Please model this.
Amino acid sequence: MGRFPTWLLLLALTGPCLAGKDLEMVRRVQGGALTAVCHYNQHEYSQREKFWCKELSDLECRTIVQSSPAAGRNSLNPPNARVSLKDSGIGWISVSMTELRIEDSGIYWCGVSDRMKIIPLKKIKVAVSYEAPMRLSAKKGDSISLNCSYFMDDSRRPNNFTWCKMITTTRCQPVVSVKIDQIVNTQGRTRLKIDRWNRVITVTLVVLQLHDSGEYHCETHLQGSTVLLKMITLNVLESYDRTAFVTTSHPIDKIGAIFPTTARNDQQSWYSEVSLSVLCIMAGLLGAKFLTALLIFIVASKRRSRATEQEIHGLPEQTPAPPTHSTKERKGKR
Model:
């Protein structure tokens, strides 16, 4: 690429042109593919070199593939390379990446190398997830439980896991996090639990509200970088038709191969445990109230019986009334 190193571009040379570029978001699943199209000024840059690089820092971008008009406008990579670049020569270039891997996630640039100047054409953030995306619908007030699988080996051991909600195109705001040795953590109405044996993270959301709708990510952190495990689109409704309530995985867009997977439900979800506990507590309280009422009734009945017996046994015996004076007078006259 002219006088620039074949593997590194100094983005500082682009000046304010770099900062002014909007970030485009592209989501894929590992094993899939993507194609990016970048447009340039045909009259000025048709005969210039084109490049595709991955950003290492604010000032560095490692060249992945490049093309030269002298080489037939196509990239010089071997035929079995996973990345290729094609220059149409009429104002646009296309970059293809196949057999995507988790480590392919990051920010990429396509641009033109014009002598000692770099002209950025497009800035793209690529997020390669471990599992296929999932779409969920639920009724307001209900609860859901879903699983996110993760990988772990000697060289790649995750430090923690995060459940976050996308608030912008590129920013995911954490809702709850859990460390690998913490096993479980709860924040508000959301619970995150790690199953080390099956290498699964279970996310449980209870008492869903309408504002819970949105896009969520299961993420982990490896060696200072964020790895996307799964993307979930949640739609909370006032009501829904249960016959149409399904949990499926769909591709985010038309480009790239996506392999749908069926979501696995947590058979012993946290919400079920909470509901069972609440029912047990309520049953216990009702039972205690019933026993208390029964005891009060028995005690009251005994007191009434005792009072009745005392009234019966405490009455004086009836004796004949003494004769009156009128009776004696009548006997004397006789």
Summary: Residues 309 and 315 are 11 Å apart (CA to CA). Confidence is low (pLDDT under 50) at residues 1-7, 246-271.
